[in-house]
Amino acid sequence: MNAALKAVPFTFESVLRQHRLQLDRRRLEILQVNVGLRCNQACHHCHVEAGPKRTEMMDERTALRVLDLLAGAPAVHTLDLTGGAPELNPQFRGLVQGARALGKKVIDRCNLTILFEPGQEDTTRFLADQGVIVVASLPCYSKSNVEKQRGLGVFDKSIEGLHRLNALGYGQPGSGLELDLVYNPIGASLPPAQPVLEARYRVELAEHFGIGFNRLFTITNMPIKRFLHQLRRDGKHEAYMQTLIDAFNPQAAEGVMCRNLLSVGWDGQVYDCDFNQMLELPLGAGRKTLWDLEDLAQLERRPITFGSHCFGCTAGAGSSCGGSLA
Fold first, then answer.
1. Environment class of residue 51 by beta-carbon count within 10 Å: exposed (0-12), middle (13-18) or buried (19+)?
2. Where are the domains of the chain?
3. Yes or no: is domain 3-312 CATH 3.20.20.70?
4. pTM beyond 0.85, yes or no
5. 216 with 324: CB under 8 angstroms?
6. What span, in angstroms and rounded, lies between the C-alpha atoms of 161 and 85?
7. What pLDDT digit, counting tens, does each position of 144-197 carry?
């Protein structure tokens, strides 16, 4: 970030203008659906503020509307299911099966420990049978670092969960079952270079645990919700925001996920991205719910709602639900 920008108050939009960037929506390719905020964990970095006491869950009517819109959207190739722990929602399996029947890829953003909860005994087999892509949270290959962020006992269960997935073919060459891992920094810093960290993960997980996977995604912690509260408690909020601003990368900005992704809340509200959903920032295109959309294609070339948190997606190599951008 140049000195002229730092000398006066500015917004994310003003930085885009400084770099002559116009970030409207492209063709919609990914529908990301938050099916509920209930989770068996309550991680320190969670921008959703999910946890065991949350009760918000998508109902059948809303899940069926998701599938209706997908059926009329040939350009949308992926249904990305998130939460909370998406597997806890009774609509989860119907959404998976419905989307797969339409020929869509399905992503399950799995925290791994959910696989050991009551009622989830056959979840790994279900995911494998449906050919679901599993994107699994594993913020480090070190037990101490994982448990600082996610709680005692989480690392060992996560490793066992990965073993279960590997045993069914996930992350194994030629199986067709994709297993990707997600890294988040523990504190107020940018993630390291994704290719370098992925190589280290491969060595550490293979040598110490015999675990294989397909890809590693590095994701920047967003300064919203639970992580924002932590930053303010520690007196690090302003410094972290300055880190993100100073690391603004125009190349990463060109590839931000809100350009080809639509985020759907558990209640059917629609947003430009999952982070905007948590901040309840209205969709830039002016629609409010799934029922206000006649079809998903009408969002193409429409405006996007931005905020200061967007500097998190454009810092350094960039950050998205699919990892780094640049």
1. middle
2. 3-312
3. yes
4. yes
5. no
6. 14
7. 777 777 677 789 999 999 999 999 999 999 999 999 999 988 889 999 999 999
